[in-house]
Specification:
441 residues; 6-stranded mixed β-sheet; 4-stranded mixed β-sheet; globular
Length: 441
């Protein structure tokens, strides 16, 4: 079986074929495997629960349901049934729905992605599932390494040779060559490509060759493997990963080693990892959105000589404990903007669709507002902004600003991820006008 089910964030998946016209439906056996996978899903974060992000529900007559919340990517079951979860992106200006292309563009902003070689033009993403897209990205990175020549290094070797080289291993020579005077048991250093990084890459290529469903990827893998003919596949992944040292001579391998760990050991780019029953590549949209906004904001704001700091550190909610100096409860806003005049603006990104209901506070979390108020006081600024993805119901809502009455304001801005650079230019313009308003007042 090699079926693919594509869903969007917050869409419901079922295993009951009687309701396939109302919901996204899997066959019963694959759906049961999905439920098993969710319960077996491993988390490295003791404060995280997979059920916070993948919700198992139950409806009368319908049976169990599964909904993905804020995590997107791909899950491949042991029977090769694939579930592709794409983010809920609204195309508010009449563009065609090209969610996958926009999502891949957003992923490029994350540090763990090989964006230096990946462009949407390189990939025919409409013909590939996400897993094959990620495989193709890995292959492009390998191709870049091969183009510049894979690294070699001196490795200590011992062998019983007919020619003398290196250093004679006396004890071993006596044991092996009492009846072979023409041989020498020697130890020597040999310059070779069979080093841990290359072994792991070859093992990854061999594994990807067996799991990729893309003919394009298969062809690329066969071509790349010819460059690794003198490299042995890794016999012990953990041992070889432990031997890898990333320094100025091996910097170009850093991304590949991270991705090899993903493919060889079932690791994911989240706090969650796959199981023996399935492979998972799931990405938290909160972090993807934050990274995407930060990268594009820096690009636009730097032109105005405004400094943008992501995940700013140094401020704490409390500075003493029992009268002694102890900084407690670190504050880490997503973005801190310092204008060219030294004034500071705090911005936090939230991957959530708000509702156009003033009475319900537009769906803004009370906890988020408490956090924004703390930022205002600790950073000594009245200019706090919450950045949400744009949606149809909030598209023409106008400016929304909450005022505490004691010097803290929280304003909302809606980011169009489809037209991100234009959206950041609009934000720059809004913050420039906001500064003028503060000066006048």
């Amino acid at each position: 079986m090699n079926e693919l089910l594509e869903v969007k964030e917050f869409e419901t998946i079922i295993g009951n074929p009687d309701y396939r016209d109302l919901y996204k439906c899997m066959d019963k056996n694959s759906f049961a495997e999905l439920i098993e996978f969710i319960h077996a899903f491993d988390s490295d974060d003791t404060e995280s629960d997979v059920l916070d992000f993948i919700k198992i529900g139950y409806k009368r007559n319908l049976g169990e349901t599964v909904t993905f919340k804020n995590y997107v990517g791909l899950i491949q079951m042991k029977n090769n049934y694939q579930i592709q979860i794409l983010p809920k992106i609204e195309f508010v200006n009449g563009e065609n729905d090209e969610t996958k292309q926009v999502f891949m563009k957003m992923l490029r902003s994350m540090r763990d992605f090989p964006s230096k070689v990946f462009t949407n033009a390189n990939l025919k993403t409409n013909r590939m599932n996400l897993y094959d897209v990620f495989i193709n990205m890995y292959l492009q990175e390998v191709r870049s390494i091969v183009k510049h020549g894979i690294k070699s290094s001196y490795a200590r070797q011992e062998d019983n040779l007919t020619v003398y080289k290196g250093k004679l291993m006396v004890n071993e020579h006596i044991k092996a060559n009492l009846a072979h005077k023409e041989r020498y048991y020697v130890g020597f250093d040999e310059y070779q490509v069979n080093r841990p990084e290359n072994r792991l890459i070859k093992s990854t290529l061999l594994k990807l060759q067996s799991i990729s469903s893309s003919a394009e990827n298969g062809k690329e893998i066969r071509q790349l493997l010819t460059s690794f003919e003198l490299v042995e596949p890794s016999k012990n992944y953990d041992e070889d990963f432990a031997k890898v040292v990333i320094d100025r001579n091996t910097k170009e391998y850093e991304m590949l080693i991270k991705w090899s760990k993903v493919f060889l050991k079932g690791k994911s780019f989240t706090t969650f990892s796959g199981t023996d029953n399935a492979r998972a590549l799931l990405f938290p949209m909160e972090k993807v959105f934050e990274s995407y906004v930060a990268r594009n904001m820096k690009k636009v704001f730097n032109r105005a000589n405004w400094e943008v700091s992501a995940q700013d550190k140094g401020h704490y909610l409390f500075n003493t404990l029992n009268g002694e100096k102890h900084r407690k409860f670190a504050l880490r806003p997503d973005l801190v903007v310092t204008r060219d005049d030294g004034s500071v603006v705090i911005l936090d990104t939230k991957w959530k669709s708000l509702i156009n209901d003033k009475g319900a506070n537009y769906g803004i979390s009370q906890g988020d507002m408490y956090q924004m108020y703390a930022y205002s006081k600790k950073y000594n600024t009245s200019e706090i902004w919450l950045l949400y993805p744009v949606n149809f119901v909030m598209k023409d809502s106008g400016k929304i600003t909450f005022d505490s009455g004691d010097g803290a304001t929280v304003s909302l801005f809606f980011v169009d991820v489809v037209n991100i650079e234009k959206s950041m230019e609009e934000l720059l313009n809004v913050l420039s006008q906001d500064r003028l308003t503060v000066i006048v007042e």
